[in-house]
Amino acid sequence: MHSLLTTLVIASLPTVALAGGKGHKAHEHGTASVNIVGEANTVTIQLESPSEAIYGFEYEAKKPADIKKRDEAVEKLKANADKMFILDTSLACKLIEATVNPFVTEAQEAKEDKKHKHKKGTHSEVHATFKFECGKPVAGSEVKFAAKAQFKSLRKLKVQTLSGETQSGSTIVNDAGSAKL
Ligand SMILES: [Zn+2]
Q: pTM to 2 decimals?
């Protein structure tokens, strides 16, 4: 029952994050959204970033040089997730899973939004999920950020945290500030 609940909570997060606005909005370059869910000894972080901030362009990579650029950025993202999202060291958290979808187009996301004016293929996003397993319960701990330190165009993070039944939001600019689980 407990693990089922966790799955449901994670699955419903994007909806929660969008509930304040009217459907999907075009992303803002330099701004990524970050959903952080703390549950018992685990932390799950979902990152949705404009592709431009991760690998420098938003069209579909077809040329070998572009594919190389994209793939290298994906590897960098996976390898540095625990440096970009800094969990309290006393929790002894380990990154146990990193999945990255490097090309999510707005056309796919905005299917239901008829008012969406962007041309097909104009924008794309990188969606990633990182799972951490920790040595202690994570509730009440602090998360710090060094996303811009890894990807210099990632200037702003719109962070939503969900820990137990507590949900909160904060905006991190130039890696300054923290979020609480
Ligand atoms: Zn874009």
A: 0.81
